[in-house]
Amino acid sequence: MKLPVYLELLETSETALAASFRVVGRGHADDADIFHTCSTLAQQCDQHAEALAPVVERYGRAEAAEADRRFEAMAQARSGPLGLLRDLHDVFVLASLVEMTWTLVQQAAKALRDEELLSVVSSALAQTEVQLAWLRTRLKVAAPQTLVAAS
Amino acid sequence: MPDRIADIWGGRTPFARGTAWPVRVDQKLAEGVSESEVERWVVSACTLCSNGCALDIAVKDGRMVGVRGRARDAVNHGRLGPKGLFGSWQGMQGGDRLTTPLIRGADGELVETDWDTAMGRIVEKSRALLEEKGPLSHGFYTSGQLFLEEYYALAIIGKAGIGTPHMDGNTRLCTATAAAALKESFGSDGQPGCYEDIDECDAIALYGHNVAETQTVLWARILDRLAGPDRPQLICVDPRETEVARLADVHLAIHPGTNLALMNGLVRELFEHDWIDHAYVDAHTVGVDELRAAVAPWDPESVAQVCGVAADDVRRAAEIIGTSERLLSTVLQGFYQASHATASSCQVNNLHLLRGLLGKPGCGILQMNGQPTAQNARETGADGDLPGFRNWENEQHVAELARLWGVEPAKIPHWAPPTHAMQIFRYAEQGSIGFLWVSATNPAVSMPESPRIRAILGRPELFLVVQDLYLTETAMLADVVLPAAGWGEKQGAFTNADRTVHLSDKAVEPPGQARSDLEIFLDYARRMDFRRDDGAPLLDWSSPEDGFRAWQECSRGKLCDYSGLSYEKLRAGGVRWPCNDEHPDGTARLYTDAVFRTGMDVAETYGHDLLTGASVPPDTYSAMRVDGRAILKPAGYTSPHEVPGEDYPLRFTTGRTAYQFHTRTRTARARQLDRAAPRAWVELAVPDASALGIREGDLVRVTSPRGELVVPARVGEVRPGTVFAPFHYGYWQGGKAGPGEQPTAANELTITEWDPVSKQPIFKVAAVRVEKVAGGSAPAPAPTTTASRPAEPDGVPVTVGGAEAEAEERLQTAGMARS
């Protein structure tokens, strides 16, 4: 069974997403909505990773050779309006990966009839979809001013 | 005659449920002017709060010499409050009115000039920036105090003349959440209830609404029901011991910032006790399962712990809400300017939807407004909406506007929502907005985190235009100052918080060269040569009435339908929209048929996630098949972002006093009002004050991470652990845009943060510390007649107005004046 590989992917990617939200939020704290919303969403990601713990316990860890850690947190924020746009865009890509990872784990959970895992997936996936919707909303608002009027 | 400074609400005229509120005509004339000497009475309504009390302006020798309430008007039945009696007309007559345009000279000082030079400077800068950087370089920040026609002209200039999305009003600070909550629940802005619901209800719940001070005449109406034979039950949610709280059956003095926890608890109680109209919920709403799940954790004990109130009080409030046959709910800044603003306000809507109490007499929701004409900014699109409650994501709606204005739809910015005020100021801070035009408002004092706002307004790279009555703190920072004509000096219509439209006729000539805001906007449009695609001028109006007719066409068939109105009709008295062929006398209540504006083709918004503000995409909304049903929207509670800690152990909240309005531009020019509340103060609870060694009248320093206030302390009846400051007190009286040694503006302390959906700033949740600076020689200059009353009244002079504050009250039924 290869599910442990994807459970570990989820843990590392949610942790990376949480860290990235914090980096972007603090890096753009003068944009108050970015600071506060990123902080709230980072907490959601922490909770998603924690909620997986009992499931990981049941299915065990992935073999070291199979573990995949390519989801990496953003190291630092860029600056200025263009920096904000690029940073949110990067987080959007990472959140999209997270969302697809949950979707694939949900498929496996259905095949396994694993109610506990399905319940964890259901709430985390719904919140990840809102995270993506927020990023999309905020990016679309920021793009015209940033790309046309900002210096 | 009664002293209406000492007696804010006037004499009682008790009445029973289902009967008419008795008529009492309140009148104030200038010293030495008798009624027989008044030459003309000119129809108008008061613009010193959102109640919109109808009145006539007394004119003698070309001057306004007083006011008289209009007996037959549905809003006030003749009554006026202290601000209307004293402030409305005297506030226009300060000796320091702006009478000529000013421009910043080579030495950096503002100097007098003529209109041609001032407008020429504006147009030159505007054209240069449009050429260099395009429409996104322009921002407009307007008011909640202009007239409908002026807002609509501005909206057309911004959207079809320049083509910028950067336009908002200070309505963002006072009423954005009312609009947002109505849109999220019912699909569109539009007040469901009306003031007659006070006359008809069995219970009134006031959520963060200190109506006794914000809308004094509305409170007088409630007081008269409370004094009547079948007293309605009263619920008050407020951290201060307000007049409302003192008379409430249940007072929930919750911690600022915890509204949503309380509301989730109240909604949960309705489910627990099955106080639900299942037939209504099934037929007319969506989302009940999600709502039930979201509120499940909020049993009364959990609410009590987070909010700092007794669990039994939560139960008692819920029982009144759950069992009253006719329930009226009102909401204002305690919810709108606090954490989870839209989410908490939507829960009020949810309580009514769950009980099926909507669109029937006595079953109203009043999502209130703060300012007198805020409603019109929302309707006409001068505040971050599209005109006529149109949806920027609906191409048909945008095409309608394009047809009305004779431009291509692409000219009208609709790639994202119109930019909200806090973001406009952020763009100005970053330099991508280089031209900012502020009309009839004073952001240097009224916006959060004043030190930051002053720095933005003072940026040399920002070209700042300010048009106002007086040289406000904001005007002192401007590159061009335009002298505006105001209330009584110009003509126009405006709409109050319960959708009542009034006409305000011109009573007198404006001082000096002052011009109406409409004339100024039309002049700018002419000089900029804004044109329709067929080459005709974009704005060809020559009078306010032209503007009103244009607006009638824009509103035709929309929820806010003005097509059945006219200036002539309005002269006879206020009328509530929608007013059209079908409803020629207007409409008392919306949603009497429980069909809401949530269909894809009519919805003003497709909605948002209440926690983050993420937009619901059109295809997702379409798939929800809401189709005219209301949306029971939930949100989970999260802790406020700034909570008390070691360095800043107290909660800080701001608000109004009954005697002042906004930044006192007009109210401080009326002696009666100014003397009642002349200078700034802060309120501390008794245990907090004694722990800090602070006594009544001591000078204290209040510090937050943003700045400090140094003002006298009133040891009063605010909730322990909380500090309150009125937000009216800036620096114009000292001739300065900002503070010296002793800052007085409450917004020196407030946080730059806003609600994710309504984008309304959070003025009522911050953390501060307080220390004593010096002993006081006199009590704090705070009124004793309001929520600011001292905990220990001995030694504090009672607030009175004396002879100059006497006003006549004529009971129409008795035919006698109160003396």
Describe the structure.
- The complex is a heterodimer of chains A (151) and B (819).
- Chain A has helices spanning 3-27, 32-51, 53-59, 80-112, 115-149.
- Chain A is mainly alpha-helical and 151 residues long.
- Chain A has one domain: Ferritin, core subunit, four-helix bundle (Ferritin), CATH 1.20.1260.
- The model of chain A has no long low-confidence stretch (mean pLDDT 94).
- In chain B, the strands form six sheets. Chain B has a seven-stranded mixed sheet, with helices on both faces. A six-stranded antiparallel sheet of chain B has the order 2-3-4-1-28-29, with helices on one face. In chain B, strands 23-25-24-27-22-26 form a six-stranded mixed sheet.
- The radius of gyration of chain B is 25 Å and the shape is globular.
- Chain B folds into four domains: 23-90 and 807-812, N-terminal domain of TfIIb (Single Sheet), CATH 2.20.25.90; 102-174 and 374-489 and 511-556, Rossmann fold; 177-368 and 603-631, Dimethylsulfoxide Reductase, domain 2 (3-Layer(aba) Sandwich), CATH 3.40.228; 650-788, Beta Barrel (Barwin-like endoglucanases).
- Chain B is of the alpha/beta class and 819 residues long.
- Chains A and B meet through helix 2 and helix 5 of A and helix 19 of B.
- Chain B: It holds the Pfam family Molybdop_Fe4S4.
- Chain B: Residues 774-800 are annotated as: Disordered.
- Chain B: This is Nitrate reductase.
- Chain B: InterPro entries: Asp_de-COase-like_dom_sf, CT_Nitrate-R-NapA-like, MoPterin_dinucl-bd_dom, Mopterin_OxRdtase, Mopterin_OxRdtase_4Fe-4S_dom, Prok_molybdopt-oxidoreductase.
